[in-house]
Design goal:
The protein is an alpha/beta fold and 356 residues long. It has a seven-stranded mixed sheet, with helices on both faces. A two-stranded antiparallel ribbon has the order 1-2. β6, α13 and β7 form a beta-alpha-beta unit. The radius of gyration is 22 Å and the shape is globular.
């Protein structure tokens, strides 16, 4: 019996077509990046039906490339096509996702993050051979800005009213005035959001990436958030001049060189009644339980970003997906006395509340 006759050819075809579909997805992401960075999506939002020539003039781009880009976007169902007028149009729903930076469903940060990350493939191949990794400071100058844009919609729309509000009694405490710490704050969007929401509180953001901290300081000044300060330091070097009523870390503990040391530092920095709010990607620690679009995305990001930035410094290299089980295990090792998953409906992240 030949190998071919012993195989389930339906499964063979399904896998082959899945790979071809993923191939198309990768190319669409590259074109999405072009549309995002060159302002094509934003130029179409609210503009009504446009020909490729009209969009090219509006964006000062080459018509032939714009036309082919539009055709790909129609095939991907990112924009629509009116056959009667031979024009392309972006619906309100498409604009909400592709062009509105303040929308809770804005995905421009995803385009912005994906294409530059894939450009690191050859560097990652070398890490496969030799170990080590690519540090965050060397992973690409676009990456910090892309990550900021990816997470900003969540901070802007959900951080206060959904995530923090899920902790009983926390919002009134912060409104009255408290010490807040934001560990792994990046370019400061989450930190400034909390500072503006709770003007009576004192908010500190800490991140080791100096350019991000410099940007965060400018963001705070621009937003008029006078009750916020930023420190450029390793995540476990939380300033000890105060005890914190709330410490947050959003989607970053798994990236840390030494996540356990960071968690121990967070626990030590909390006030006796303080609370630690921690988010991680919404997936199981078992990869076979993540056979869905989000699970595929999280696991694929891991060696290209989250794991490699840790291993670059000889770190733990936890990877993107640690799941609730992984978080619970780390919390127990760090000495936290309680660990609760918060009842937050969020497809992308799961949230935990820990007490000292």
């Amino acid at each position: 019996m030949s190998a071919e006759t012993s195989m389930n050819m339906k499964k063979v075809e399904e896998l082959a077509f899945r790979v071809v579909g993923d191939m198309g997805g990768a190319f669409v992401m590259a074109l999405g990046y072009i549309g995002d960075r060159l302002g094509l999506f934003k130029a179409m939002a609210g503009a009504g039906p446009l020909t490729s020539a009209e969009l090219a003039r509006k964006t000062s781009l080459n018509e032939r490339y714009v036309r082919e880009w539009l055709r790909a976007m129609v095939a991907a169902e990112y924009v629509d096509y009116d056959t009667a007028s031979d024009r392309y149009v972006m619906t309100a729903e498409q604009a909400f996702v592709l062009a509105n930076e303040d929308s809770p469903m804005f995905v421009g940060g995803g385009f912005h993050f994906t294409a530059p990350s894939i450009q690191n493939t050859h560097k990652i191949m070398e890490a496969f051979r030799s170990g080590g990794g690519i540090s965050y400071s060397e992973i690409g100058e676009e990456i910090p800005r892309a990550i900021e844009r990816f997470f900003r919609p969540g901070y802007l729309n959900f951080l206060v009213k959904d995530w923090l509000a899920a902790v009983p009694g926390l919002i009134p405490k912060l409104e009255k005035g408290a010490n807040i710490g934001d560990v792994g704050c990046g370019r400061g969007q989450s930190t400034v959001t909390m500072a503006k929401a709770f003007p009576n509180s004192r908010v500190l953001g800490i991140d080791y990436h100096v350019p991000s901290i410099e940007y965060a300081r400018g963001l705070a000044a621009e937003q008029g958030a006078a009750n916020v300060e930023f420190v450029a330091a390793a995540a476990d070097k939380i300033p000890t001049d105060r005890k914190y009523d709330l410490i947050c870390s959003f989607d970053c503990i798994h990236d840390m060189v030494d996540p356990l040391v960071t968690l121990k530092a967070i626990r030590e920095a909390l006030s006796p009644e303080g609370i630690y709010v921690w988010s991680e990607p919404n997936a199981s620690h078992n990869a076979h339980e993540n056979r869905n679009p989000l699970g595929r995305t999280f696991h694929s990001i891991s060696p290209l970003h989250c794991m490699t930035v840790s291993l670059a410094h000889g770190g733990a290299g936890l990877g993107t997906v640690i799941g609730e089980a992984g978080a619970r295990g780390l919390a127990e090792q760090a000495g936290f006395t309680s660990f609760d998953r918060l009842p937050i409906e969020n497809p992308f992240n799961q949230f935990f509340a820990l007490h000292k």
